[in-house]
């Protein structure tokens, strides 16, 4: 039998990982979930994943258990889970995606956790196999690290960092899909303001972003060199770039990542 993967919480991110694993070919019958919100649970059950109403039973049958609830409710929820799992005989490997909640806090809070709790920080594009996922390595056995890496690399790229950097990852790749969507929306609105239809503006924006990312990856050139290649002297691009400079785009983005990182740190306090 293949690994049985369980999800405590199948909301935006738990559901995204679950969907990603199914898309990567994981057997739905080996994907288990515990989720109180009816409409969310229904949409996940419709994919063939197996819903449990008894958390302890699910945890007992799972090889790997993803913790995907909000950090703010983790403490309260942990006592419910402990009560439900108190007679469990087996202990799954636990992978937490919660922002801010340290590995030690998880170990302290869950009576069914063994030493190998792995903290990871994924991001939403893993739903389409394009996630950027960081795995915190400290205190985790090589074997558990490999289990997490193998599972998550089916839905994106993985990097390994020290746990002290997980908040920074949360501020950057964990949160940045939202920044990117805001950026895209801004460009699209700019196009609409200048007379393009929204569908055409969206098509051009997305192709430009995809193409620019591909070029950056493949050209061996850095961002400055590529930007200079677009910016003709006294041309259109440099006129636009000056607006970005005046608005402090890069500084704003740096503050953005910093604010989200600090918020992640605060959630763990
Ligand atoms: N969203 C993202 O892009 C990312 C999120 N994360 C992390 O993922 C975690 C989940 O975030 P997100 O998916 O956005 O949040 P959601 O609120 O979408 O999902 C959490 C789910 O957990 C459910 N839940 C509540 N109580 C329990 C319980 N006792 N047992 C099991 N499930 C329960 C919630 O149900 P109900 O609504 O009924 O309360 C909800 O459906 C957070 O810790 C966040 O830090 C990490 C990286 C990216
Ligand atoms: O906004 C949040 O708190 C979560 C963590 C990373 C992305 N979403």
Short structural description:
This protein has twelve helices and eight strands. By secondary structure, the protein is α/β, with parallel strands linked by helices. (2S)-3,4-dihydro-2H-pyrrole-2-carboxylic acid binds at residues 99, 170, 174-175.
Strand order of the largest sheet: 3-2-1-4-5-6-7-8
Query: What is the radius of gyration?
Result: 21 Å
**Which percent band covers the strand fraction?**
5-15%
Overall number of strands: 8
Name the structural class: alpha/beta
* CATH class categorisation of the largest domain: Alpha Beta
Catalogue the ligands. NADPH dihydro-nicotinamide-adenine-dinucleotide phosphate, (2S)-3,4-dihydro-2H-pyrrole-2-carboxylic acid
For the report, how would you describe the main beta sheet? 8 strands, mixed
Q: Looking at the chains present, what oligomeric state does this protein adopt? A: single chain
Q: What's the number of structural domains?
A: 2
Helical fraction equals 40-55%
- Coarse shape: elongated
Order of helices and strands: EHEHEHEHEHEEHEHHHHHH
| Second rung of CATH, namely the architecture of the largest domain | 3-Layer(aba) Sandwich
Terminal CA distance: 40 Å
Low-confidence stretches: none
Report mean pLDDT, rounded to a whole number: 95
CATH superfamily of the largest domain: NAD(P)-binding Rossmann-like Domain
CATH names the topology of the largest domain as Rossmann fold
Number of helices: 12
Family: Belongs to the pyrroline-5-carboxylate reductase family.
Function: Catalyzes the reduction of 1-pyrroline-5-carboxylate (PCA) to L-proline.
Keywords: Amino-acid biosynthesis, Cytoplasm, NADP, Oxidoreductase, Proline biosynthesis
Subcellular location: Cytoplasm
């Amino acid at each position: 039998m293949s690994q049985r993967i369980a999800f405590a919480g199948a909301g935006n991110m738990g559901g995204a990982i679950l969907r990603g694993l199914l898309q990567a070919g994981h057997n739905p019958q080996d994907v288990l979930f515990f989720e109180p919100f009816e409409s969310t649970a229904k949409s996940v059950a419709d994919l063939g994943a197996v819903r449990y109403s008894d958390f302890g039973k699910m945890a007992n049958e799972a090889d790997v258990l993803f913790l995907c609830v909000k950090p703010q409710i983790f403490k309260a929820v942990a006592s419910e889970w402990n009560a439900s799992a108190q007679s469990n005989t087996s202990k799954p490997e636990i992978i937490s995606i919660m922002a801010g909640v340290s590995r030690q806090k998880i170990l302290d809070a869950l009576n069914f956790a063994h030493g190998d709790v792995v903290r990871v920080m994924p991001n939403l594009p893993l739903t389409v196999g394009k996630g950027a996922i960081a795995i915190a390595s400290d205190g985790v056995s090589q074997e558990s690290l490999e289990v997490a890496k193998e599972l998550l690399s089916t839905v994106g790229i993985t990097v390994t960092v020290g746990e002290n950097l997980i908040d920074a990852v949360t501020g950057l790749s964990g949160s940045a899909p939202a920044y990117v969507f805001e950026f895209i929306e801004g460009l699209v609105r700019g196009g609409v303001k200048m007379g393009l239809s929204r569908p055409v503006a969206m098509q051009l924006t997305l192709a430009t972003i995809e193409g620019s990312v591909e070029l950056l990856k493949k050209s061996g050139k850095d961002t400055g060199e590529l930007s200079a290649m677009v910016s003709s002297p006294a041309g259109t691009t440099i006129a636009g770039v000056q607006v970005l400079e005046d608005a402090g785009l890069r500084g704003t983005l740096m503050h953005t990542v910093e604010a989200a990182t600090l918020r992640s740190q605060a959630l763990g306090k």
